[in-house]
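Propose amino acids for all 137 sites.
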């Protein structure tokens, strides 16, 4: 899984299109994306096929963003599973930048979380694999 970017957007018509067009103009393919907005702010959580070029585009367009390191956890597919993971990480002081559900099978859900302290997250969740490169701001 690629380096995740969490990008702050203004919550206004056309802002996501502006981001997507900037990436497309450089030939960057969006591999995964999620987003949302409330009030004046929104965010896009995405991975691309060219992390270095994505950074250049984001800087060039003036977007604020954070990068995290991706960890993938598999939990029981039931109400409260995300709450359990989030509470465990929060109690350990680990900040979650973004989360994507990347798969489901036989009563299990696979979640990719972008976090600021991947080693600590791995430790408290008992996860052995981390995806992505070191966290940077």
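Proposal:
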């Amino acid at each position: 899984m690629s380096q995740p970017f969490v990008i702050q957007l203004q919550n206004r018509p056309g802002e996501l299109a502006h981001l997507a067009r900037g990436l497309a103009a450089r030939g960057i393919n969006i591999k995964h994306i999620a987003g949302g907005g409330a009030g004046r702010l929104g965010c896009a959580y995405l991975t691309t096929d060219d992390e270095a070029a994505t950074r250049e585009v984001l800087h060039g367009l003036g977007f604020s963003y954070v990068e995290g390191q991706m960890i993938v956890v598999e939990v029981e597919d039931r109400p409260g599973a995300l709450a359990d993971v989030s509470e465990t990480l929060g109690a350990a002081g680990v900040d979650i930048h973004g989360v994507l559900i990347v798969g489901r099978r036989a009563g299990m859900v696979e979640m990719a979380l972008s976090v600021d302290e991947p080693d600590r997250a791995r430790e408290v969740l008992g996860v052995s694999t981390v995806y992505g490169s070191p966290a940077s701001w």
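The radius of gyration is 15 Å. Confidence is low (pLDDT under 50) at residues 130-137.
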